[in-house]
Amino acid sequence: MYKEVLAVDLKELRTEKAMGLIKPLYKVILPSKSGDFAAQWSSCLTQLCEIISSSSLKPVRANIFVKSLNPEDYLNQLSHIDSTFSIALDEKCPPFGVVMQEPEDPHLVLIEAGFVDSDEASVTYGNFRGRYYCVVDAGNYKEYWTIGAQSVHPDLNILASSDSSFSYLHDLYDHLGLSFNNIVRQWNYVGDLLRKEEMDGRLRQHYQMFNEIRSKFYKQYRDRKDFPAATGIGMLYLGVCIDSFSVTGDSNLKIYPISNPNQSESYQYGQKVLIGAPDCALSQNQPPQFERAKLIELNGVSRMIVSGTASIIGEETVAIGDVEEQTRITIKNIKALTSPENLKAQCQGIVAIPQKYSYIRVYVKYKEDIAKVKKVCAEAYGDVPSTYVVADICRDNLLVEIEGELIS
Length: 408
Fold this sequence. Notes:
With about 400 residues, the chain is α+β, with helices and mostly antiparallel strands. It is about 25% helix and about 35% strand. The protein has a domain at about 25-290: CATH 3.30.1330.40. The strands form 5 sheets. A 6-stranded mixed beta sheet has the order 5-6-7-12-8-11. A 6-stranded mixed beta sheet has the order 13-14-15-20-18-19, covered by helices on one side.
């Protein structure tokens, strides 16, 4: 299978000395105080503000995970966070989003935040139609972080919510002078991911409906032969939310799609693993269009973005019903994906192999399994910043999914 390597020019390229890639820093901020949601949120927000005020770190994204009792509760939490977050961070407000994925006990909320050192790059913040974005300028390349291309409205079905979210993202990219070709990483949060509902006399799954809309927008606005790295994951109750990470740079910037030797390409999945009926206008279900990982390389520094990975060999789920074994197999899949042998085979002339994890995020289907999953992950990843949340995985028989990022 032909794999295209991205090399694009950066407009108005600075004449400063070319640098390597920025090395991001991630922190998982947990409430330091007990109490109700407002008290725990205040604790997390205070800690974030202290990090920013006491260091040269500037935030580039903030993913906020909340425990919501019902849709009304979530909308109240969202309103509270939206108002307090933007006021507290003011002109340093990064893109942030609130996702209905329950943190581990006893936490009602947590923040997973990404930072860059202002000594390494300039960071500017903007707002488009009420949602924030961030541009990181390292001179020889730029990063663009967006969070919250979302449609969480109770009157919209998943098709309409997906279309609305992708439409917003397209308009935002047009505003930034980008296209969908620039997307390196996407996070796709889909409400009631595995739910099936009757539409036009067909039983249709939410995840497959999202995949149809994704395919439509990629066909219309993306002319590359590869796809972004991605996670497609469930959230409770409402709508669709899309986060993204994009880059532009000079001809020295290379972006490689990375295949996993243990797994089939997701966009080549057969119909037997795609659940529910397709749209009446389609002859078959659309597979999820993402790469297993993307590797970014610039001036002897590399960074690897690992997509959501699960206990799948080829295209089949393995270790069904055993969450600990699924976690071990998932970790083995990630090791195979990120191994020097795999990367050297797919990235011709690569100088530096990314081997240090910046963070991992772990989605666990059942809350009672988090402790088991954490134990297995701790053995593999040690003290790497780690987020654990409850979420439906893209198949009903998958119990855990892991994503992450590595730097050389």
